[in-house]
Amino acid sequence: MDFEFIITSKQEAIGIVELNRPKQYNALNRKMVREIVEAFEQFERDEEVRVIVLQGRGNAFSAGADIDEMAFDDTIKLELLNQFADWDKIALMKKPIIGAVQGYVFGGGFELALSCDMLIAAEGTEFCFPEVNLGVMPGAGGTQRLTKLVGRTKALEWIWTANRITANAALQHGVINQIVQKEILIEETMKIATQISNQPPLAIRLIKESVNKAVDYSLYEGMQFERKNFYVLFSSEDQKEGMQAFVEKRKPQFKGR
Ligand code: HXC
């Protein structure tokens, strides 16, 4: 895959996307966001890939949207650009996306991190929504995703004040899954990614779909949705294999079918 602002690679069943503008702290310009989405889509179609890992090169995950690119935007240009259609596609990915974050996770970078399914953070990582300091506000899901995660009170505090949130506070409020030493961030992320990649892929994707519905649906609707996905898995070879292997007291061989 040939990209200008990201680097992609594969390690066994894991597709890796690295943000690659380290001198600008991986500030996200629009082409970069399009490339991230394109890379995700290619990994979605790649049968060998079961889990996607997103990380940033250099000292930051991302310091947010590219302010130089945005500075002279106007309302009509933004409407016509419809750049958030690209961001919306990230939420449509069915494979698990695990973010490995370090350094600055700011603004649009924080929103990109919040679009991942799980987040592993290096010690010293700082999260922040600094948009208010620029006279604007988060626009790629920040006010929505953060509020659903941490509740209205903390979301307002963090977004109004633009205070930097430590990795410990992010962990305490359920924004991230784990904090690890910086030197082992990628190693630990790959361990978790590998563990998930060894699980039956169809169950993994329907679990993601069902858990995501819990965010938007009522409990009743969510339960109905979960039930249908539970039934669907009984059409899979992996369900037969998983249960047969249990009965025969052996390790299952999952194929993703
Ligand atoms: C463009 C950026 C950038 C950004 C850093 N740089 N962040 N360029 N957009 N978001 C560039 C700087 O201009 C500089 O380039 C180089 O990266 C290093 O940054 P410095 O400021 O010199 O480094 P430092 O003093 O260490 O400070 C790091 C920092 C600071 C605290 C992260 O750069 C900062 O506050 N950045 C802006 C963060 C921000 O406001 N993000 C929100 C953007 S709005 P040169 O060429 O001078 O070396 C947003 C809205 C999203 O994200 C809406 C949805 C898309």
Automatic annotation (TrEMBL):
<dbReference type="Pfam" id="PF00378">
    <property type="entry name" value="ECH_1"/>
</dbReference>
<dbReference type="InterPro" id="IPR014748">
    <property type="entry name" value="Enoyl-CoA_hydra_C"/>
</dbReference>
<comment type="similarity">
    <text>Belongs to the enoyl-CoA hydratase/isomerase family.</text>
</comment>
<dbReference type="InterPro" id="IPR001753">
    <property type="entry name" value="Enoyl-CoA_hydra/iso"/>
</dbReference>
<dbReference type="InterPro" id="IPR018376">
    <property type="entry name" value="Enoyl-CoA_hyd/isom_CS"/>
</dbReference>
<dbReference type="InterPro" id="IPR029045">
    <property type="entry name" value="ClpP/crotonase-like_dom_sf"/>
</dbReference>
<dbReference type="GO" id="GO:0004300">
    <property type="term" value="F:enoyl-CoA hydratase activity"/>
</dbReference>
<keyword id="KW-0456">Lyase</keyword>
<protein>
    <submittedName>
        <fullName>Enoyl-CoA hydratase</fullName>
        <ecNumber>4.2.1.17</ecNumber>
    </submittedName>
</protein>
<dbReference type="GO" id="GO:0006635">
    <property type="term" value="P:fatty acid beta-oxidation"/>
</dbReference>
